[in-house]
Predict the structure.
Amino acid sequence: MMQAYKQKDLYNRMVQQQASGAFEMQNIDADTYRKILEAHASDLYTPNFFIRIASGLLTAIAVIFSGLLLGLMANASSEEFLVPFVLFLCIACYVVLELLIKQKQYYNAGVDNVLMCCSIIFLVSSFFIEDYTGNDIAAASFATIFCLWLCIRFTDGFMALLSFSALYILIILLCSKAGLIGEAIAPFALMFISVIVYAVATRSLKNENLLFYHYSCKAVRFLTLISFYISANYFIINEAGKAMFSSTTSMPQTLSMLYWILSVLIPIVYIVYGLRKRDLLFIRIGFVLLIATILTIHYYHQFLPPEINMLIGGLSLIAISYALTKYLRIPKHGYSFENTYRNKKELMNVEALIIAQVFGKSNNKQKGFEFGGGSSGGGGATGNY
């Protein structure tokens, strides 16, 4: 089994999270919510946010001082000995991580997150202790594979983000080694890899066998949408070309026009697609990238002083926000001002399943139970999660 956790614990934790969302949206009442939590107990340990921060800081301090102490004891000063010593620290962090999860069932508890990050840092650092040809490409390659393994093993969304980021950097490094051809194809290669990874993540979201990786897939989809725009933004391409490829010639007029069109068009396409599909991810990213596009245009073509632009932009955002707030107080065309941060259809399906499971298990103990509030939304018409 590739996962470090029991599937039952992961499933029960997911049901608890969905039940919490349903309870917050008042789809189920407090008594039903309590019964769901009792019926789907999970052994995974996830403390509150502040304890996670404290545990993570203490773990980071412990790793640093342990590494320094072992380095002093082993006299790891030469480069020849330093590389295996750093790799030893990487393996040690990973082994401790496996042992703690097996014994304590840590799940996003701060300790496990820091140990994962430390193992990656030690692995990548080992490639830069000695200077040799291709060390950056080797580091990015191993980081991509190792972060992907950590994501699969520990169902961690942050590791999925790091894996895609390392893959993105790897493509940039490979293109930088290819000279003028690499400089020409780099933006298109990066856009292509962003589209491919987005398609894989979207397809994985529809696969019920990958249920516990849905959060990781959503995180990767978010990053690919941003990376696709970054790969086509005129400012990024122009400035990165000068910095990484030591380019002294100006960009061809045709490519320059293409990148300007993509810089303006991509955010608009995101917003339009998000409005048509009622997808807040596309809408939010589209508006943020639209601001990036405006800043890109302002960098090369300054029509007004910066303070005037900021004043006009701020007043426009306030006016638009106020108008939409007033307009959407009564839901129109599937949009509402209310905080519906969860997918309602998903909540109703989960509610139907978990309530059916709760009552299916508790009918032998209690008879004639009637739950109070909320709507059943189909009441267990299907048994699929």
